[in-house]
């Protein structure tokens, strides 16, 4: 915010409405979505210990072979971690829909959308279409092998939107989520506890929020 205020100093200044808009943007897009993604991923790992063990094995092996590697480099190279996170973002999409304005009149699938019309892209619905995702409510990181992705429509998975107006913070959000998971899973495991529900009760607004939070057990690794 200080940098924004500095950039808009002089003749052009931010008014209170713009300041409020930027603040909400930072809170929802820059904090809540990443926090929720971490919550959903820890829940999925707790409910799927076989996936968690495979992920921990990948992390352990990588840092044993590359003890001096930076967390940034590790985040780029851990393939199964990337697959797990992509599948988590598919099952529990942080922003369930995005809105756009049609820039010119176009006909899609026999439906004419006039210039200036509002268009809603239901990302969460797309992420659960069975023609792209067999058994769509199952947690299966193997959906994101190189081969599987090559054989699927590229727009079937877009948790950060798509194109020139996709989420500006996508790379940073993925990086901080991966680093957090790496650091935790090197020392701890997640497990289902007495308050961990079999299914999460979700509330969908601007973001997808778990009602009542997400509860799992955190167990130190031996």
TrEMBL record:
Protein residues bound to heme: 167
Sorted UniProt keywords: Heme, Iron, Metal-binding, Monooxygenase, Oxidoreductase
Claim: Iron is one of the keywords in the record: yes
InterPro entries registered for this protein in UniProt: Cyt_P450, Cyt_P450_CS, Cyt_P450_E_grp-I, Cyt_P450_sf, Cytochrome_P450_3A
Cross-referenced Pfam families: p450 (PF00067)
A GO MF label: oxidoreductase activity, acting on paired donors, with incorporation or reduction of molecular oxygen
Gene3D superfamilies: Cytochrome P450
Cofactor(s) of this protein: heme
Keyword Oxidoreductase carried by entry: yes
Family from the record: Belongs to the cytochrome P450 family.
Entry-linked PANTHER family: CYTOCHROME P450 FAMILY 3, FATTY-ACID PEROXYGENASE
Function per UniProt: Cytochromes P450 are a group of heme-thiolate monooxygenases. They oxidize a variety of structurally unrelated compounds, including steroids, fatty acids, and xenobiotics.
Name of the protein in its database record: Thromboxane-A synthase
Species annotation: Geodia barretti
